[in-house]
Every structure is written in C-alpha cells, then in structure tokens.
Write a structure and sequence with these properties.
The structure holds three protein chains of three kinds. Chain A is an alpha/beta fold. Chain A is built from six helices and nine strands. Chain A has a domain of 141 residues: Rossmann fold, CATH 3.40.50.11310. In chain A, the strands form two sheets. Chain A has a six-stranded mixed β-sheet with strand order 1-8-7-4-3-2. The radius of gyration of chain A is 16 Å and the shape is globular. Chain C has one domain. The radius of gyration of chain C is 21 Å and the shape is elongated. Helix content of chain C is 47%, strand content 26%. Chain C is built from four helices and three strands. Chain C has a three-stranded antiparallel β-sheet. Classes of the chains: A alpha/beta, B alpha+beta, C alpha+beta.
Chain lengths: 205, 369, 151
C-alpha cells in the first residue's frame, strides 16, 4: 500500500472560502504589479512545496491545466501526489506544454521563452510561472511601469536568475504573447504580468 | 453619440414577479413535483440533459419546471448551472457493447444475434390521442418473458472481416480528444470535436439537416444499421487509487447509420458509417446526429461538398441552440441608438432619392417641351 | 500494493455503492452500527466529469457531454483511507461510500460489510436488472415466415 498520509493531508479546510480568498489575493496582485500582497496560506503541503505555492496551486489548477515542476519540487513524490489529490492536475515534463509551472528554486529555472508564450490569436494560451524566491528586497531592483502601476513601481526580488532583468525585458517585448509570473515567499506574493515593462535598467546602479 | 438609459428596474422586478406568478398558475391546481417531471416527462428531461450537456435528471426536471416547459430555456439554465461546477476529469470511454439493453433494433439485419428488441417505443402506435390519459387510468405493468442470454452483437462487428463495412479505427496512443468546452471552433474540425458538438446540438436543427440529406442534399443513402438504448456503466481513473472507479450508470441512445458508398480515390466501395451517441432515450436525435456526422465526412471520404449538411462550418456553427437563441433573442435588447443612426441614414437616402427623382422629372419635362 | 483480486473486490463494492439508492445505503450503513469517527480529507464535493464515448462505438475517443459527480475521501482513526466517486449530487451517498471503502481496508471488516451491506444491495440491483431484461425480452420480435405458393 502506498503511503497515503502526506499526500492527502493539508488541503483547503473550507475549499470555497479558502480558494476565493487566495484567488482574490492573486487577482489583486496581478492587477497591481510589483505590489506585495500578503495572505496566510490555508494549506500545509509536504516539503519542499512552500505553503503559499501550494495555496496558489490549489486555487488555480485543475484537470485542464497541465503543470510542470522544476527539479526541486519534481524530485519529491509526496509533492506530486499532494498536487494530484488536491488539484486534479496532470504533469508534463515539457515546459512548453504546461499551463502552470511551479518552481521551487527561483534562482535557476529554464529561460522564460521555453514556456508556452501563447499565440497572437490566443495570447491566453501561455504559461503562468509560480516561483519561490528568497525575499522581495535585497535583489536587483526592477523599476516597472504599465497598467495597474501608478507612475512607476520598484521591487528588488532576491533569488532570481542573474539575467532575470534581460529575460523579463524580452518577455514584455513579446506582448501580447509572453508569460506571467507570480513570485512568492513566506506569506507574500508579487505578480509580474507581461504588461509590466522595465523602464530603466540604469536604476540598478 | 451614446445615450445611457436607465429606468427599467422596477418594471423588470415586477416582470419577474409576474413570471413566477404565471409559472405557478392557478393555485388550486397542485404544483408539479420534480419526481412527476422525471417520471412522466422523461423524454423531455432526456432532451434537456442531452442538449444542456449535463447528465443529471433532477436538475433537468428542475430546469423544465422553472422554464415553464420551454425546453430551450431549460437547456440554457442547465448550461449556465454547468459552468459553476469544477471539472474533476474525464471518464474512461464508454463500452456501449456492454450495455444493459432496453431497446435494440436493426433495419439491416432481421436475425441479428440478440434479436430485435422493440422496448418502450412510439413506433407502431397509431398516433391517436388517448382520451383516457385525460384522467389517471390504471396502467398495467409491462409483460415479462424469460430474459435472453445471448449477447447483442454490434452491427459493425457482424459484417466486419469481409471489409464490406468500414471498421472502427482506434489509433493507439492517441492524445486526448479536443474539447469544445475550452477550444474555440476552428475549421476543419476533428471528427471527435464535431461529434461532441452534434451530441449537444439542437434536435430540430439536426433533424432538418438529416432529412435534407435523404432528400438529396448530400445524398448518402442511409440505413439504420443499429439503434440501441440502455444503461452503460461509466468509470473514471482516480489517480490516488490507481485504477478505474465505477461511477454508476447512465442511459444512452446509440445509432449506427450505415451508408452506401461507391468508393472514391481515397477508399474502396464499401458501406461507410455515421455515428450518434446521446444521453437518455433520444432516438430521433441520435439518428439525426449520425446522418449529419456521415454527411460532414464528405471531404474525408473524397466526396464533393455540395450541400449544407456536408459543410462542417455551417452545421457546427449553427447547431447549438443556446448560441442560436442568444443571438436571435438579443435582437429584443435596446438597439435605440443603432436604430436612430439607421433612421437618419434612410432619411438622408430618401432625400437624395427625392432630389434625383425631381431632377429627372424636370429633365423629362424640359426634353418634352 | 494491492493485488488484482483486492482491486477487483474494491471496484465491485464501489460499483454497487455508486448505483445504490441513498436511502438504502443510509439504512444498511446505520444497521451496521459502525459509525467510525473520521477525518474528511476531501469533500464530499460536487463537480463535473466529462463523459467519453468512442467514434463508431469502438474507435477514437470523443467527449459527448458532462455529468454531475460527487466525491469524498475520508480517513478513519486507525489511518485507513477510503475514497468514493459517484454520479449525481448526493453528498451523503459519497460520504457513506467513502466510509465503507475505508472500513473495508481491514479484511475482517470487509467480510462483515460485504455480507450485511454489499450483498443485499447487489441482490436488489441484480433483481432490478433482471426485471428490466425480462420486460425488454417480452418486446422481442419473433419472426415467422408465412407459407407461400402451392404445397
């Protein structure tokens, strides 16, 4: 008999309300790029899946959204079983086929353009990357503008690849194609939709 | 110019209240129960399930009651409800060969294994109104007879082997069939997705198109190879269990239409087939579906596409009665501004026309003088 | 891992539970008087499944509509986990079926539940099927050929 304990525990205790609360948080964060939104994750998934990513996954994934796990999360059978039981989603090992990518190590993951970018006709057929990072400060500052940002917003996420700023600039240039990101750590998340453009890389200096 | 108009709220509220009042009707007449609807309007319930694309008898009955018996309105209600539920996954493909049969006939083979089982059919009734049903007469329960042990073979399997009838092809390792629920229509559309559209398509529309194929619009010379109605068990693979879990049974109607085919550059002379699979006891719909399925295979089989039923974009784009009713009925919504614009345009054109006419008359007069 | 026989038994139990009337499930479950305390791992919750057929009956799969389903997963105090999925929107049916599945993870309990709950339900369902077969059989056409021509 398989170990049925870790995989089955720790889901939403009030699925409707919990999912609504998390959905609201992600929606608000997506509408206000680079703004930190806090939510206490109402799930307790097995390590190394961070609870906040488990909560986002439980809210957004279902049987119609193939998911890709980075090696950090993919090496844990418990994480896979937990996600299957609580979301019904299936896995793909091709980043380009995934609707969602869950990334346990934000400092090293495939380039943004290896994930589904959508098409000119259907830009929604693109991937959303949910990425665990270390913190929302102390990293390379990103100064952004775009819909949902009053004037400009700056955030300095720590724990992303070194060339992230360049990759992000390329991603926003592919608009309306491109991926959207949810960066998460602890009880906080920040969204970077493809409409949030970098204004000045010289801000780094 | 955009003119925002408000002011209908009280009228709308009162209209809804009046609707509820009329729906209930004469209060001295007992209210319909959902059990009465599922038991005694069973075929209406089946139509709402099939075109609402949701197998749930009680919900379909509720929709019929709420819609005052307007089946397209009921189908709309069911479709709307359906969007509120999370999707847990996809069933294993149903095995209609293992059906618990309630009716099974073939117009091609008299003595097929399993026999001709008429079941609860309107066929052979004289279509005379039965005034006894105006009351609540005692109805005898059905006659019984020793049940059969021989399996009801599928018609496709009877002629199979000789190559006279095209056989089913199940490409191993195929990817999941497309799903019209979340894929926008693109043509040409796969046969799997066309069948999904037809299965929830409007019975009247498909019936008329199927009829047109018999009258020569995309002639395909059909025979009812087999129609079977009965219960089939559905299963779904549950990942945490690792095996297919039986979910219970649903009632379906399956139609295998067999069509004469003289052959083409792409295929030898043989009988081709059209397929219908519909929720509940929905025989007319399953037959119409299989006629339309076959007609839309024209291109695949190397036939000329000359008639509307063979034109998949025409059939698929217009077979959904929720879409159709939405677009037709939206004409009732205020188009005040559009209409004012058109009115202005027509006035201008009329003025120009009158101007031309009078110039013409003047010219005529001058020419005459 | 479960053996093939265990899976077959579990599947046939699930089939009976999914098809049974909820009122009968409630009666027979109450009569067993087990009422184990349990933790709900998921559900009971109602959702949809997409039903698939095969083109021509035996060909490529296609979706032909959706159905309502209800599922539940429970864990008993002894750690046994049970799952249930059944067509329809009956939360109590799914809950009881998941509890039965969990209880039956212990072979001695499975024997008891099979004898006192599953077997009677199975018999009722089989009788209903047989009735339907007999009613259908009475509508079978017995063709006969008229004698034609001179002797």
């Amino acid at each position: 008999m398989r170990n049925e304990s870790t995989a089955l525990d720790g889901g939403f205790s009030a699925p409707v309300q919990d999912a609504q609360a998390v959905f609201r948080a992600v929606m608000d964060a997506m509408a206000r790029p680079a703004t930190i939104v806090e939510i206490r994750p109402p799930v307790t998934p097995p390590a190394p899946l961070p609870p906040i990513i488990g909560a986002i996954a439980s809210t957004l994934l279902d049987a119609d959204t193939p998911i890709w796990l980075d090696p950090t999360l993919g090496q844990s059978p418990e994480v896979g079983e937990w996600l299957v039981f609580h979301t019904g989603a299936s896995f793909t090992d091709q980043p380009g086929e995934a609707s969602f990518a869950l990334i346990g190590d934000g400092s090293a993951f495939p380039d943004l353009d290896t994930f589904a970018q959508g098409t000119q006709e259907y830009p929604d057929r693109s991937a959303t990357l949910v990425i665990a990072i270390e913190a929302f400060d102390g990293g390379t500052p990103l100064c952004l503008r775009g819909p949902g940002i009053l004037d400009r917003a700056t955030i300095a996420p720590r724990g992303l690849p070194k060339d992230f700023a360049e990759q992000w600039e390329e991603n926003t240039q592919r608009f309306p194609r491109g991926v959207d990101l949810v960066l998460a750590t602890g009880d906080s998340l920040v969204c970077l939709p493809r409409t949030a453009r970098l204004i000045a890389r010289e801000m780094e200096v | 110019m955009y003119v925002a108009v408000k002011g209908g709220e009280a009228a709308i509220d009162n209209a809804h209240r009046l609707l509820a009042d009329r729906r209930r009707g004469d209060r001295s007449v007992p209210a319909l129960t959902l059990d009465q609807i599922t038991e005694q309007f069973a075929l209406g319930v089946d139509r709402v399930m099939s075109e609402g694309s949701l197998y749930d008898r009680r919900l379909a009955a509720l929709a019929i009651k709420q819609a005052r018996g307007d089946l397209i309105e009921a189908i709309f209600l069911v479709r709307a409800y359906r969007t509120t539920l999370p999707r847990f996954g996809y069933s294993e493909p149903v095995d209609t060969g293992a059906m618990l049969i309630e009716r099974r006939i073939s117009a091609c083979f008299k003595d097929l294994p399993g026999g001709q089982l008429l079941g609860p059919t309107f066929d052979y009734t004289h279509r005379l109104l039965d005034e006894e049903l105006d009351g609540d007469p005692q109805i005898a329960i059905g006659e019984r007879r020793e049940s059969l042990t021989d399996a009801a073979a599928r018609v496709a399997d009877i002629l199979g082997g000789e190559g006279l009838v095209e056989e089913d092809v199940d490409p191993a390792g195929q990817s999941a069939p497309g799903d019209i629920n979340h894929t926008p229509s693109e043509f040409p559309m796969s046969r799997a997705m066309r069948l999904q559209s037809l299965s929830r398509g409007d019975e009247g529309f498909l019936l008329a198109l199927g009829y047109s194929t018999q009258r020569g619009y995309g002639r395909s010379h059909p025979f009812a190879g087999e129609i079977r109605i009965g219960e089939v068990e559905m299963e779904i693979i549950v990942p945490e269990l690792g095996f297919a879990v039986p979910l219970g049974r649903i009632q379906v109607t399956e139609c295998q239409m067999v069509n004469q085919f003289k052959g083409s550059a792409k295929a030898p002379p043989q009988f081709t087939r059209g397929y219908g699979l519909v929720f509940g006891q929905s025989e007319r719909k399953a037959m119409a579906m299989s006629l339309c399925d076959r007609a839309m295979r024209a291109e695949e089989l190397g036939e000329d596409v000359v008639a509307p039923p063979q034109d998949q974009e025409f059939v698929i784009s217009h077979c959904d009665n929720v879409q159709a009713t939405g677009f037709v009925e939206h004409l009732k919504l205020p188009h005040y501004v559009d209409f004012q614009a058109e009115l202005g345009l027509v006035r201008t054109m009329r003025a120009e026309y009158a101007q031309r006419e009078s110039t013409f008359q003047t010219d005529l007069q001058e020419a005459a003088e | 891992m479960q053996t093939h026989e265990e899976i077959a038994l579990r599947r046939s139990r699930m089939s009976v539970l999914a098809r049974a009337r909820t009122s009968r499930l409630q009666e027979l479950w109450a009569a067993l008087d087990l009422a184990p305390s349990y933790q709900a791992l998921r559900g009971p919750e109602c959702g949809l499944i997409t039903l698939q057929g095969r083109i021509g009956g035996g060909g490529e799969a296609f979706n032909f509509g959706e159905a309502t389903v209800t599922r539940a997963s429970v864990r008993l105090e002894d750690g046994s986990v049970g799952h249930a999925v059944a067509l329809g929107r009956d939360m109590d049916k799914a809950r009881i079926a998941a509890l039965v599945d969990a209880v039956c993870r212990k072979p001695e309990m499975a024997t008891l539940v099979d004898a006192r709950m599953i077997a009677p339900l199975q018999q009722e369902l089989d009788e209903a099927d047989e009735t339907l077969r007999q009613l259908t059989a009475a509508t079978r056409v017995d063709f006969f050929t008229m004698v034609r021509g001179e002797d």
